[in-house]
Amino acid sequence: MAGKLIVLEGVDGTGKSTQFALLCDALRRRGVTFRELSFPDYADDSSALVRMYLGGEFGGDPDAVSPYAASVFYACDRYASFKRRWQEDWEAGGLCVSCRYTTSNAVHQGAKLAGDERRAYWEWLFDFEYRLLGIPAPDRVILLDLPAQVALANVRERGEKGDIHEGDADFLARSAEAAREAAQRYGWTVVPCAEGGVMRSREAIHEDLVRATGE
Predict the structure, then answer these.
(1) Nearest alpha-carbon partner for 62 in 150, 178, 157
(2) Architecture of domain 4-213
């Protein structure tokens, strides 16, 4: 019996990590049993190519690397994680909750393309990972939606040296646009993170997120 996979998505600056931690805490308080996942798995050797890519070793501009090549880097990391850590739980019917997944490639690598080329890439991406590699397709994807200018301000406010994605304002804007298109095309649940161009409170976003999981 296949399990259930819920994925949290959003561009850099949306507060994914914070909201994911709050969501997991809320599920535990409710007594929900689940496997917590997060991608890329930076602590594992399986993410080596991802770390090289984000660190600029293949070029300091995200567009210097083909979306197809970059997607393979991330896919290998997810495949390794599934086979070694959570396949048994999922096949036993368990609930898995993930911060980022294949859908992150749809957002960030999809930002490198437009129109028919973007849609063709999406079809390839999901077929590659879910059918050919055999990792589970999400049952629900929840997108934290935030205007690019607000997301960029949040990234800059952190004052951290970001990766090649985070440091590129144009790429972040294209990623936000790709995320909205993917959400509409594939039926993702959208949770707005801003109102009137101003970031909503952490608590308000969290409440909407918990409701969106259906758990």
Answers:
(1) 178
(2) 3-Layer(aba) Sandwich (3.40)
